[in-house]
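Quick one: co-fold with nicotinamide-adenine-dinucleotide.
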Amino acid sequence: MADQLLEKPVLKRAPSILDAMTPSSSLQFEKIPVEGYEQVVKITHKSAGLTGIIAIHSSTLGPALGGIRIHPYGSFNEALEDVLRLSRGMTYKSAIAESGFGGGKGVIIADPKKHKTIELLLAFGAAVEKLGGNYICAEDAGCTTEDVKIIRRATKYVVGLPNAKSSGDPGTFTAWGVYRGIQAAAKKLFGTDSLEGRSVAIQGLGSVGSRLADILFWAGAELVLSDLDTAKVERLAHQYGARAVPADQILATECDILAPCALGGIINDKTLPFFQCRAIAGAANNQLLRDSHAVALQTRGILYAPDFVINAGGILNVTSELDEEGYNPTTPRYRVHRIYDTLLAIYEIAEKNRESTHSAALALANYRIRYGIGKRILPPTFHHQAE
Ligand code: NAD
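Sure, here it is.
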């Protein structure tokens, strides 16, 4: 058996993978009790160089699903804090989007540029397998679709593989959802969701931001663009007749709507006094440094589209891979479209309750979890084969 496996190129390079995939594995699980979380486990595999954490925040509405972040965290506690925050965010995102999944996340403490090996990925995959489908993983920062393909050899509980049965790059769906969110912001602010002549400033022109720029151009918006990659900004500014601004000025740009599509934590004590927009509606995860910054935005009269609501297009697309009948892009297309209605409902609730839009969205997510609204009925179907 071992000889047969050794025929595979990956195992020729890394015989220790066998350890990660057999019952006699040196994979170690250590439970970390955390209040409010269903399961948090530290996973280690010495010979594979793996130290990681899988956090399952909630599986009330369906199996926990979330990406794997590979990052050289400064300490174990920093990684723990990140995985807890991210997995809880996934719960809320999925609950609001009614994806039929719960919230989970995996982190691997490693520099993806230096320490990512096949052994490491397979050992992590073995850990996911051991959780028996309670956690379904996908790519995230530092973990590519090619990495996920390797992880698939150790576990079937994976989405977002780069093959014909996959849903492909989620950026297209996320960008469309953000566009619908920007329309909802315009509706709330101006009484019409037409973006003709409205100014939208986009921070970050990557997978989502560049697609969003394209959609907004065709919707008639006046664009202000920014990215660290100045050549890209110039190219897209020329393409869309947009104004290019330096990366350190985009947040303070006067505009109708600011769309952060780069980094988290951009709404904080330092940036708050500088915003000159009527609304903030963009793709970036964890835009608020702290929840209280949502209240500060409200006080300043800036409408905020909660990030975990507006950026759910990607999760809606990727999870539809697990539909019984297989991936069909028309299903997530309609669901992503509805982000508009969800946001308008959240704005109304926030106004009635005199609370921040972030707080209203959290309450709505918790309400759905409590009453099982959108709970999965059929178990997910894994159509992918290991390659
Ligand atoms: P990406 O890595 O493709 O693009 C990010 C872009 O932001 C890059 O071009 C980068 O140069 C630029 N950037 C980084 N720092 C910047 C700064 N200070 N000022 C201006 N530009 C800066 O990422 P993406 O997939 O487009 O995702 C964008 C954001 O949306 C991320 O926060 C991501 O977590 C979130 N998000 C993405 C998806 C998705 O489907 N890709 C889904 C949900 C949420």
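If it helps, The CA atoms of residues 76 and 109 lie 8 Å apart.
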